[in-house]
Amino acid sequence: MTSTFHPIDPAALERLHAILGEEGLRTDEPARQRYGRDETEDLHFPPQAVALPATPDQVAAVMRLASELRLAVTPRGAGTGLSGGALPVAGGICLSVERLDKIRWIDRRDLSCEAEAGVITGHLQRQVEEQGLFYPPDPASGDTCLLAGNLAEDSAGPHSCKYGTTRRYVLSLEAVLPSGELIRTGARTRKDATGYNLTQLLVGSEGTLAIITAATLRLLPKPATTLVLVIPFPALDAAAAAVEEIFLAGFDPATCELMEAEALRAVGEVMVLPPGLVDQEAMLLVELDGEVADELLERAAAIADLVESLGAGEPLVAQDAAEQRRLWEVRSKIGEAVKHRSVYKEADTVVPRKALADLVRAARRAAADHGLTAICYGHAGDGNLHVNLLRGELPLEEWASRRDAAEEQLFRAVIDLGGTLSGEHGIGWSQKQLLPLAIDPPTLALMRQVKKAFDPLGILNPGKIFPDS
Length: 469
Ligand SMILES: Cc1cc2nc3c(=O)[nH]c(=O)nc-3n(C[C@H](O)[C@H](O)[C@H](O)COP(=O)(O)OP(=O)(O)OC[C@H]3O[C@@H](n4cnc5c(N)ncnc54)[C@H](O)[C@@H]3O)c2cc1C
Hints:
By secondary structure, this protein is of the alpha+beta class. Helices cover 35% and strands 20% of the residues.
């Protein structure tokens, strides 16, 4: 693959240096090592150079040079991705937008804002909250990941079951094409029927079509109050079945998260679990939001009654903000806790919500058939379950072959259930060989043509999304 790109020779480095200055270009070994990884398994592909532009114009100038010299460029946010999208698999330049970190404006009256791609998602959320506003997309990595990665992956998080994923909030994008031209898609308006919707094409395009430098985002008024309910279940599939009932009954929770016993045990190894969460087979964490606290208490009681008939135990109810944070911490720590246990591969499965219990059974079967341990948890309200397959003590080759076989079996079952390959982490590098399971040949051919229209030289994020032929 690298043979189609030119290496960065000293003359090219000099030109990059002239564009980016001392602060904006790194070729030292620690930087190459650091920017050669993301949070996907234990993969590592060091780039030749790390570009850290501070303005959209610098991004454009780097891309003009890369186009002229046929250099591979891999866009990067904070490197928290879980499908290897930011790995510079073809070497070349890793272009991180982390220094494009300005919130350009927040317009309270218009419920919108414009922020550069390098803004940390949690920072934007806190800034808009200070004005009584709400930016709902909330990946569990929110205090480290950047809007850049959220936009490129169409990231979601617990709140997406009520509020939708990142794309629902994007009105307009500023981006740099592989040729180096700066474009502006969409408009600031709530409605826009003007030409092709390139904004929504770029959202979720995983850094393969253009480099996003800024976004205009829709905001909401912040709900006045929230309540968290943690409900224990005697079995994982009983908890999964309860999810369907909660939505069918019209409760419209802001979040509905599922955790199985093994996930809770793993978290118990990195923090002290609140007493009610010890030794439970499965849990649902349900958050309700609204304007009146008493109404939330009534809804919580009604949910508790409903799920009791499905075998649920007595729920923990938290109205107080500190107590809610303590319960959320358990959920947020699962990824870190699993990683602490073992190298793992995360399958970002997603099915229609009504098939969640079948998905849980299929995940268990796929892991058991190949002698692996699986830990399941995730955004049950979206039918989106993260199935973590653990390497444990297996030698590398055996792990790789068992993992791949289990994963393929699992995704075949997911597709039979009406689901698909990724709910929120993207295809990137690590899922691309499975893409033909979900996308038929003519559709895949059309996607390749779209890629070619944006990036005729194939220099932007090469080796991603499309399976090797
Ligand atoms: C502990 C943990 C919890 C997580 N929880 C969630 C969760 O709840 N929900 C969820 O959806 N994800 C979650 N993730 C995954 C990850 O955080 C998200 O995918 C996030 O959006 C990645 O953002 P990033 O800035 O780190 O992007 P990176 O990892 O740097 O990049 C991700 C992709 O975006 C592309 N990209 C980066 N910058 C640009 C740009 N400026 N223009 C175009 N393309 C670009 C890259 O090329 C790559 O393909 C979690 C990850 C971790 C480690």
